């Protein structure tokens, strides 16, 4: 580390802790970066099942991720954290637990946990509040424990911080549509899309369920995607929890909706990136255009032909980027077509080696969660349209 970098790191560590983030593009000052250590292929459960017969984990099996994959992913995560720190951004990390252990409530027992690589799935920062999401996988029921040391430090350091947790779900069989995957996986693409449009998916409405990564933050407006992990009741809970915001439900046009941050990606005020494979519904696109936002269709990912082992992520993980500010984007180093496309819009591109992290739960956005960005809540959508 150079003398200048050491001075930057020292200045950052001395700066008071402050929780403040309203969107994904204001200048980043403090972030959590996940860890790959200890991640497991989850035991089968009603919400999800993993099937990797070519990689030693056929349907119904589970256990620790291969050590060589963990080591490579952990190295890339550590290097990414160091890159951010060199830019004067404070970085916190979660504390892994033994994810191989069996977990239980009085109503069910599950044979494994998952991991703590993707903090974006669990934690949602809105203004001075950090909210722990419900999660809908039994394997992730105790995942919040990995982040409690970080949250406690934030709470101790910032007297204005609001530390909230959504109602812990029961996740009994009543929360899931029995036999959903057996039926859904046999449907045609058009039939699957119809189920998505009708939101007839794996979750019932027995209780509020949502992942934080299904929420896109645009200042006063929050867009909540209904998906395999977020139900209507979860959207309604968020709507009531944030009464000072306009909270909108968004239905995907993807056959397997899971998290909004590779589908509808805010880049800066007036510019949003759109997954080229799954167009947003027409009313949402019209709402953005009415408010003078340009919608950019992302180029096909370079990762299209590079599916890593044991990965449940789409090639469109390419769009899972991290803004350092309105003009600077961290992009996976192999995604050269996307980098070139975004450079054409005036962005400085910071290439980050991150391909090895994908099998552990996501890309650069998934692997982080904002704690502090400069800025205040702004209204970027003064004109109303349709249901929005």
UniProtKB/TrEMBL annotation:
Source species, domain of life: Bacteria
| Active-site residue list | 211, 259, 366 (amidino-cysteine intermediate)
Record-level Gene Ontology MF annotations: glycine amidinotransferase activity; protein serine/threonine kinase activity
Q: Name the InterPro entries on file.
A: AmidinoTrfase
BP-aspect Gene Ontology terms: creatine biosynthetic process
Q: Does the keyword Transferase apply?
A: yes
Key words of the record = Kinase, Serine/threonine-protein kinase, Transferase
* UniProt keyword Kinase present: yes
* Family indicated by similarity: Belongs to the amidinotransferase family.
Q: Indicate what this protein is called per its UniProt record.
A: Serine/threonine protein kinase
